[in-house]
Amino acid sequence: MPERWVSTPAAAGLRGRRNSDTEPELLLRRALHAAGARFRLHRALDAGCNPDLVLPGRKIAVWVDGDFWHGCPVHGRSAFSGPNAPLWAMKMQRNRERDARASELARQAGWTVVRLWECEIRASPTDAARRVLGAGDA
């Protein structure tokens, strides 16, 4: 197993990807704002717990998980090939563990956690916003 990443042609499409203010985040924010919700962006709730947005009045913490980076069960990669395959598998496992830790920290701090897949938001930003707002009612 390589200990360092090997540059490949496929990597060109992944370099320079945004990690905040992504299109799915913007779609969700517009839908939430249109529904009358007010929120704060990237507010740290604890060390290692930085939701993409929070609705402080409702104590809702929201993460928008990219299909590729967070391993969407429908659109994510289930297996990797090439020289970096083991490194990708380890990275995705670390991402899942980090996501679970962050969600648990938010819950322990009294926040309702909502995690949305990129594909959910793209399919219907309005439904995604309803899901976020409905989480505060539960």
Architecture overview:
This protein is of the alpha+beta class and 138 residues long. The protein has helices spanning 23-34, 67-70, 85-108, 118-123, 125-135, and strands spanning 40-41, 53-55, 60-65, 112-117. The chain contains 5 helices and 4 strands, in the order αβββααβαα. Strands 1-2-3-4 form a 4-stranded mixed β-sheet, sandwiched between helices. Helix 1 packs across helix 5 (125-135). The longest helix is centred in the C-terminal third of the chain and has 24 residues, at 85-108. It is globular.
Q: With helices defined by DSSP (H or I, 4 residues minimum), what is the helix count? A: 5
Give the biggest beta sheet. Answer: 4 strands, mixed
Q: What is the arithmetic mean of pLDDT? A: 88
Helix fraction by DSSP (H/I, runs of at least 4)? 40-55%
Low-confidence stretches: none
Strand order of the largest sheet: 1-2-3-4
Global shape:
globular
N-to-C CA distance:
46 Å
Series of H and E elements? HEEEHHEHH
Tell me the structural class.
Answer: alpha+beta
* Strand element count: 4
Strand content: 5-15%
Radius of gyration: 16 Å
Describe what is shown at a glance:
The chain has 138 residues and is an alpha+beta fold. The chain is built from 5 helices and 4 strands; from the N terminus they run αβββααβαα.
Give the arrangement of secondary structure elements:
Blueprint (H helix, E strand, L loop, with lengths): L22 H12 L5 E2 L11 E3 L4 E6 L1 H4 L14 H24 L3 E6 H6 L1 H11 L3
Parallel strand pairs: 3-4
Antiparallel strand pairs: 1-2, 2-3
Helix pairs in contact: 1-5
